[in-house]
C-alpha cells in the first residue's frame, strides 16, 4: 500500500511535466524568432535654438509736422491704419487771414495753403491732426508714418543666452499667419540688471503683412551640426556612460559606448562610437 500511494502522484507529475514540455516546444520557436526592431545609423543635420518672444516694431519712422506759425489745419485726409502712397496728401493747411486774431507775423508773404505729403509708401501709425488746430514750432508732429517693408521683431533674450544669439543667426518667426524666415539684425549687447533680459532685433521679410505692435515668437538657431542620427529611443543613458545596442552580422547584440551631440524631437546626433549604416536596436529597453 505505501508503494501504491507514491506511484499515483509520480505518474501525475510525469504527465504534467510532459504536457508542459509539449507546450513550451510549441510556443518557444515563436518566442525565440521575435527579433527586436532595428534601424540603421544615418547622416542628418541638427540645430540648437533659443526661444524668444517680442513685438513687431518699425525699423524707421517718419514724423510729419509744420513748425511755422500762421496756419490752421483745414483737412485731415487719413486715419490711423491707412496705407498711403508716395506723394499722397495727408493733411492740408490753410493760411490764417490777417484779420484773424489767431494770426501772427506777416501772413501775406506765406502761401495760401500747404499740403503735407507722404514721402514714401507707408502706413499711418499715429495721427494727432485735428481740423482747426494751429501750427507752430512747439506743436507736436501731426502724423507718424511707418514703412511696411522695414519691420523688425524686437525680442527679449534671457541673460543665459545673450552670448549665443549672434548677428545674422537664422531665425524662424512664428506668427498667427504662419512661419516666417528672418535673421538676427542687431544682437543683444547688454543686459538689464533688473529683468536679466537683453534686447535684440530680428529682421522680418518684406510683404509679410505684419503690423507694428503684433506679438510673435521666434526660434533663433544658436548652433548646428551634421553627423550620424539614431532615434532617441535607441539611447541608453547611465550615470557613467551613454550607449546603444548594436546588432552584429551574426545576430549578436553588443553594447557600444557613444558620444551624443545635438538632438531634435525624435532623433539624437551621434558624434562618436558608430559608423554610418550600423544597425542598432530602435528601442534599447526592449532588447533584453
UniProtKB/TrEMBL annotation:
What is the protein's name according to its record? Answer: Biotin/lipoyl-binding protein
Q: Which organism is the protein's source?
A: Methylobacterium oryzihabitans
Note the coiled coil stretches, chain numbering. none
InterPro entries, per this entry?
A: MdtA-like_C, MFP_Cation_Efflux
Residues spanning the membrane: none
Cellular compartments per GO CC: outer membrane-bounded periplasmic space
- Residues annotated as domain Multidrug resistance protein MdtA-like C-terminal permuted SH3: 230-282
Q: Which GO terms describe its biological process?
A: copper ion export; plasma membrane copper ion transport
Q: Entry's Pfam families?
A: RND-MFP_C
Per UniProt, the keywords (alphabetical) are:
Signal, Transport
Signal peptide range equals: 1-34
Which GO molecular function annotation, any one, does this entry have? transition metal ion binding
Amino acid at each position: 500500500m505505501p508503494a501504491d500511494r507514491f506511484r499515483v502522484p509520480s505518474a501525475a507529475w510525469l504527465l504534467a511535466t510532459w504536457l508542459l514540455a509539449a507546450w513550451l516546444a510549441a510556443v518557444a520557436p515563436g518566442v525565440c524568432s521575435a527579433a527586436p526592431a532595428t534601424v540603421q545609423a544615418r547622416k542628418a543635420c541638427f540645430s540648437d535654438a533659443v526661444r524668444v518672444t517680442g513685438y513687431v516694431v518699425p525699423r524707421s519712422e517718419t514724423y510729419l509736422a509744420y513748425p511755422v506759425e500762421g496756419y490752421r489745419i483745414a483737412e485731415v485726409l487719413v486715419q490711423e491704419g491707412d496705407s498711403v502712397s508716395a506723394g499722397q496728401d495727408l493733411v492740408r493747411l490753410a493760411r490764417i487771414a490777417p484779420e484773424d486774431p489767431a494770426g501772427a507775423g506777416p501772413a501775406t508773404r506765406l502761401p495760401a495753403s500747404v499740403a503735407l505729403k507722404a514721402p514714401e509708401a507707408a502706413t499711418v501709425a499715429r495721427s494727432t491732426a485735428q481740423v482747426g488746430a494751429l501750427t507752430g514750432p512747439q506743436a507736436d508732429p501731426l502724423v507718424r508714418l511707418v514703412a511696411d517693408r522695414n519691420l523688425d521683431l524686437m525680442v527679449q533674450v534671457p541673460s543665459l543666452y545673450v552670448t549665443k544669439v549672434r548677428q545674422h543667426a537664422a531665425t524662424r518667426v512664428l506668427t498667427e499667419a504662419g512661419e516666417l524666415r528672418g535673421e538676427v539684425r542687431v544682437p543683444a549687447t547688454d543686459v538689464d540688471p533688473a529683468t536679466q533680459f537683453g534686447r535684440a532685433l530680428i529682421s522680418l521679410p518684406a510683404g509679410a503683412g505684419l503690423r507694428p505692435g503684433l506679438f510673435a515668437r521666434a526660434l533663433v538657431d544658436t548652433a548646428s551640426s551634421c553627423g550620424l542620427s539614431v532615434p532617441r529611443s535607441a539611447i541608453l543613458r547611465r550615470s557613467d556612460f551613454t550607449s546603444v545596442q548594436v546588432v552584429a552580422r551574426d545576430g549578436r547584440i553588443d553594447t557600444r559606448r557613444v558620444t551624443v551631440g545635438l538632438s531634435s524631437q525624435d532623433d539624437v546626433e551621434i558624434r562618436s562610437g558608430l559608423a554610418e549604416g550600423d544597425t542598432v536596436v530602435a528601442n534599447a529597453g526592449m532588447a533584453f
